[in-house]
Structure formats: C-alpha cells, structure tokens
Amino acid sequence: MALYNSKIARRSTYLTTVILSLQLLLLIFPSCYTSPEFEDDLCGSIQRANITEISQVFYSPFTNGSFADENDTVQVADFRYNFELHYERLQSSFNGFPGQCFALDCEPRFEVENISNIQILLLEEFIELAPGTDISYLFQLPDQTQLSRFRDYSQMSQFFTLTFHGSLGQVNRMRTALIVYLKNGEQLRYNSISPFLKN
Fold it and tell me: Global pTM?
C-alpha cells in the first residue's frame, strides 16, 4: 500500500511539473519578439550590420492621426526630429542565452561597422545661421548626448528621436539635410522641411 501511494505521489509530482512547465512556456513565447528582417534572431541581441539608407525623416508631435508636416506650426517643447535607418546584417550573431526571450516592446540593436558620423546641415538660413551650417549641436538624443558628439555606434536602433535645443526668436522652420557619412567616403542623405516652430 505504501509503495502504491509512493508511485501515485511521484506521478502526481511529475504531472504537476509538466503542467507548470507548459504554462510557463505559454507565458514566455507570446512575449517574444522577432524582428521581421532578422527573423532568425531574437530581439535584444546585438546585430553586426551596415547602414544602407536613411529610410525617412519625420517630425513630432503626432496629432490627429499624423505626424507634423511643413505646413503645421508646433511648440518647440513638443517638436521632435525623428529619423529611421535601414540596416543590412553582416552575419548572424546572438549574444543572449539559449531559450532567452524578450518583451514585445524591446527593440533590436545594431553594432554598425560602416558609419563614421551623422550630421544635420541647414539648406536655408535658420535663426540667423547660414545655409551649410552644421546644426547637429542643437539636437540631443534621449540620453542628452548632442548629436554632434554621438560616436557610439555599437548599439544603434532603427529609429532615432532628437529634441531641439536652439534659441528661437520668431516663428520659423528649418530646411535640412540629414547626412550619414560612411567609412568608405560615401554619404547617405535625406532632405526635409520641418513644421514652423514657435516658443
């Protein structure tokens, strides 16, 4: 009788372990995220890559279902200079642990090997600055690093959001060229016009 009860207890423990494991898997897998372009790698890994193009430049705030355009007027405090970069993976590289998953809101990171600098140049006069002026120092990344000082390309993301820290007088807008300089001497360029800015 004791042997029979012992077998039942072991079987019950085994079934409980299996059920708990299945429940844990059901919780983990829906929360995993895989980048559509790098579907064989998990979000959170660092991908060795090259930048191949500037996909777009767009401006915040996002209101009424769309981003601000050159005809809008926005407060400087709400203004954001956003851009998207496109990457080409060099090789498969996953720096996480086997079985490791990441939340849906995690973002793939790229160790970029072909970039040397990023600049924002004026194409027209803006706040008494002449066309051709590098105004990268007027923009900051979320960690408050000036774009002009940004040199860490080991964990770059697909999207960048910059805040403007210039001294604005009258209502004005900027016509700019976002330029990514590559180590081989080539440039990636994207021209755009911001909304009108006011204090």
Answer: 0.73
